[in-house]
Design a protein that fits this description.
The longest helix has 17 residues. The chain is globular and about 45 Å long. Helix 1 packs across helix 2. The chain is mainly alpha-helical. The chain has one domain. The model has no long low-confidence stretch (mean pLDDT 95). The relative contact order is 0.19.
Length: 88
């Protein structure tokens, strides 16, 4: 298992699967401001420098939807873990 934050920008050949954690950019900005005490302008700038949501989803074999609460996220992670184990 590899954690590759810039996979869209630096593609890798031969991966068994690509898991993408998806979140609406507006929600991402809100969470950055709330959880990291960053200004809204800095948070928007950080998100804008990342690959687009569409680009990340285009390379995904499986997607975790991180738009809900932590309980919903835990369920998504359990589903993703089952998918990962099926790649053996």
């Amino acid at each position: 298992m590899l954690d590759i934050p810039l996979l869209v920008e630096n593609p890798r050949e031969g991966l068994d699967g690509v898991l993408v954690v998806d979140l609406d950019p507006d929600v991402a900005v809100k969470r950055i401001v709330e959880q990291r005490n960053m200004s809204i302008d800095d948070a928007k700038a950080r998100v804008s420098r990342q690959s687009s949501r569409e680009q990340r989803l285009a390379i995904a074999d499986h997607v975790i939807d991180n738009s809900g609460d932590r309980g919903a996220l835990a369920n998504q992670v359990d589903i993703a873990w089952s998918w990962i184990k099926s790649l053996k």
